[in-house]
Amino acid sequence: MQSELIDVSLITTTPFKKDITSKVITREDFSSLLKDIKDEIAQNHQVLIVYPLVEESKEIPYQSLDEGRGFWEKRFEKVYLTHGKDKNKEEVLSEFRDNGNILLATTVVEVGISLPRLTLIVIVGAERLGLATLHQLRGRVGRLGLKSYCYLFTNEKKNSRLESFTQTQSGFEIARLDLKFRNSGDIVDGTVQSGMQFKFLDLAEDEHIVKVAKSRV
Hints:
With 217 residues, the protein is of the alpha/beta class.
């Protein structure tokens, strides 16, 4: 924060660094993903699969939670399910924490009770979510320092935003990436950020220029 009136100190380090491997995956990686899931369950670890919606939608090119549950329930034991409309969400999470192997959910699980044995998360349609939400979801794994994995499942052949996300676990760096990819503003409607764009300045990359300009005012 830049101001002549106040000084701000920032803590940029975490209490401990989690050992999380993050990776963008597509349909071609599904067999490998299944193997990783089986390996984690064999170690008495838990898996979280986050779906973009509860029920089928023709507007979204991904399976819903309801559509996908049959696949997992047929192949694995102790599969639990919850979402934002579930009145028993906390009870389900508590039961899963103690007894479950796989939890199928929506982004409602980005906050909630601690799941210490959770070591693998799959985020379906990851490109549809903001980096802050992805960071929050990824933070659900590795709570006890266990080696963990975050898989970003997408139909897109290449997504530089997701690839950049996999390279860092720093909340500050992710905030900078978010500003870089969304930009500081746009004069149009839709999914982009509102506000006027700077023509010759990138706030995510040119902070030093802002500081120099400010010092000369």
